[in-house]
Amino acid sequence: MNSPSALSSGRSIAKKVIGTPSVGPLLVLLAFGVIFSLTNPRFLATQNLSIILQQTVIIGTLAIGQTLIILTAGIDLAVGAICVLGTILAGKLANSGYDPVLAMALAVLACTAAGVAAGGLIAGLRLPPFIVTLGILGIITAALRLISAGGAFSVTDAFLGWTGNTIRLNGFILTYGVIIMLLLYGLIWFLLNQTQWGRHVYAVGNNPEAARLVGIPVGRLLLSVYVLAAFIYGIAAWLALGRIPNADPNALQTANLDSITAVVIGGTSLFGGRGGLLGTLIGALIVGVLRNGLTLAGIDPLWQDLITGILVIVAVALDQLTRGKR
Amino acid sequence: MAAAASGAPVVTAPAGVILEARNLVKRYGHVTALDGVDFELRSGEILAVVGDNGAGKSSLIKALTGALIPDSGEILLDGQPVHFKGPLDARKLGIETVYQDLAVAAALDISSNLFLGRERRRPGFLGNVLRMLDKKGMRAEAERSMADLKFHLPSIGSAVESLSGGQRQGVAVARAALFAKKLAIMDEPTAALGVRETGQVLDLIRAIRQRGLPVVLISHNMPNVFEIADRIHIMRLGRRAAVVSPKTHTMADVVAIMTGAAKVEEPASSGLRASITT
Amino acid sequence: MSSLRISTDVRSGTVARSTAAGLVIFGTAFAVTGHASADEVIVGLVTKTEVNPFFVKMRQAAEEEAKAKGVKLIARAGKFDGDNEGQVTAIEDLISAGAKGILVTPNNSTGMLGVIKKAREAGVLVIALDTATDPADAVDATFATDNFQAGVQQGAYARKALGDKKPVLAMLDGTPGGTVDTFRHNGYLKGFGLAEGDPAIAGSAITNGAQDKGQVGMENLLSKNGDINAVYTINEPAAAGAYAALKSFGKEADVMLTSIDGGCAGVRNVKAGQIAATVMQFPYKMAANGVDAVVEYAASGKKPSGFVNTGSFLITDKPIAGIDSKDTEWGLKNCWGD
Question: Which of A280, B32, B38, C64 is most buried when burial is the number of CB atoms within 10 A of its CB?
Answer without folding.
Answer: A280
